[in-house]
Design goal:
By secondary structure, the chain is α/β, with parallel strands linked by helices. 42% of the residues lie in helices and 19% in strands. The protein contains nine helices and eight strands. It binds pyridoxal-5'-phosphate (PLP).
């Protein structure tokens, strides 16, 4: 399964992020031994012991909702945070990254799903945040792109429209706020159930859990 999935994703010039939440260190190591280095967790409390125990050349991505008071725990090592949804959270990431003399890559999470429960910025909130950043640049943060989660539905037309909307938004932000800048280059969308659709609509990071590790 792993090799086929990797080949499929890489053939579309995207990266596979293995979502290892609820999975044991042994299960993670099994994938590591096949060559996987990008892993994603959605809770800080679960990420910390895994970071401690597992090989240090793993790139850890935080993909779940993040509280400001937890940023300090992951700032020393986290490779990318996918779930930035406020300027206040960005400022805290910047402050903690500066303390560690690091730059942290972040994605701005956009609310694209129909469900109320999913986190993320609306379009107006996104542009407000980008304007705030324009006035007050944060030196230890690199805005690397956008992230989104589609509605949890079997209706592929709905999912495709949401992913296409996110890609158009990505293009617009790149053009207006990061013209010619290589840093704004990642579009994190697609999970086990909808990754094929995400690949068709320009995803560069696919976040896969259950398809790789089995159902949780
Ligand atoms: C769990 C999770 C995934 C992976 O979901 P699967 O359906 O298991 O592939 C992707 N993104 C986020 C934000 C998650 O929390």
């Amino acid at each position: 399964m792993y090799k086929e999935l990797l080949t499929e994703i890489e053939s579309k010039h995207a990266k596979l992020l293995a979502v290892s939440k609820t999975k044991s260190n042994e299960e993670i190591l099994e994938l590591y031994q096949k060559g996987q280095r990008l892993f994603g967790e959605n809770r800080v409390q679960e990420l910390l012991p895994k970071y401690e125990a597992l090989p240090k050349d793993i790139s850890w991505h935080l993909i779940g909702h993040l509280q400001s008071n937890k940023v300090k725990f992951i700032a020393p090592f986290v490779k990318m945070i996918h779930s930035i949804d406020s300027f206040k959270l960005l400022e805290e990431c910047n402050r903690q990254a500066a303390k560690c003399s690091r730059t942290i890559d972040v994605l701005l999470q956009i609310h694209i799903a129909k469900e109320e429960t999913k986190f993320g910025l609306s379009e107006p909130e996104l542009f407000q945040l980008l304007d705030q950043l324009g006035e007050r640049p944060l030196k230890n943060i690199r805005i690397a792109g956008l992230m989104g989660m589609a509605t949890n539905t079997h209706n592929e037309t709905v999912v495709a429209a949401e992913f296409e909307g996110l890609r158009l938004l990505f293009d617009k932000v790149k053009q207006n706020y990061f013209p010619g800048q290589h840093q704004f280059c990642e579009l994190s969308m697609g999970m086990s159930s909808d990754y094929k659709i995400a690949l068709e609509h320009g995803a560069t990071i696919i976040r896969i859990g259950s398809l790789l590790f089995g159902a949780r």
